[in-house]
Amino acid sequence: MRLHVGCAMWSNTAWQGRFLPHPLPPGERLRSYATWCNAVEGNTTFYATPTRSTVESWARQTAPGFRFVAKLPKSITHDRRLTGVDEELRSFLEAIEPLGPRAHALWIQLPASFGPTDLGALAGFLHRLPRSHRYAVEVRHRAFFDDARSERLLKGVLAGSDAEWIPFDTDTLFRSPPTSDAERDAWAKKPRVPRRAFALTDRPIVRYLGRDDTARTVEGWQPWIGTVAGWLREGRSPTVFIHTPDNADAPMLARRFHDDVRALLPGIEPLPEPVPVEPLTLF
Known about the structure:
Blueprint: E1 4-7, H1 26-33, E2 39-42, H2 44-47, H3 52-60, E3 67-71, H4 74-79, H5 86-96, E4 103-109, H6 119-128, E5 135-138, H7 143-146, H8 148-160, E6 164-165, E7 168-169, H9 171-174, H10 181-189, E8 205-209, H11 214-220, H12 222-233, E9 239-243, H13 250-264
Parallel strand pairs: 1-2, 1-9, 2-3, 3-4, 4-5, 5-6, 7-8, 8-9
Helix pairs in contact: 6-8, 12-13
């Protein structure tokens, strides 16, 4: 039994000398991160399709069982809104091919303006995708959360292509006013949508956003402990990504979440031992 956990990125300035050795060349940071977590969100691919050589480097730094949830480029999901994107999609799929089994799912994050009237475009897009990959969709339009019919229609579209619905749980962030610059920035940018805790497939994916205060982050994820443990008992293979507004402690928090679930299910395979980080010196 294996639970995959990870962060929104594999490199952060605040991690250097704490979770990742410092100095460490950019081409080695993913390898070190992969000793802390066994999954990562592929947010960088949202801004541009990476070169094949870059993706080959990612594959070399990770084991085949490591999970990337790679986000489709915004040119596909936001600019073209899934229409007339065959060439962009082909280029993206060719670029990430070196990941092989590490490409756990391709993540289709849709803009908040993509609503129920756009479900035909989503259905057509999912139908045209190659079956060689798994797919997961994140929606932000309030109708999918507030209107039962819209939610039911979305679930039907996703089920028709065996695609997962990725919940982005921001409930803890918005539970009380922000207390730091990073939290204020997150309040301005992150979606304020209700928590959804169901799985449509055997590979559910959760994105959880806490606070910069560790205690409040841990308190907020408690409902997910039982949910994720339940999925594992059912034979599902979940992936959980832990965020905070500043992400300064995200690798440690991801491992703590893993420990919390493992306390309920001791049979879960342990995470790898992190690479030792030498203490900073003056010389």
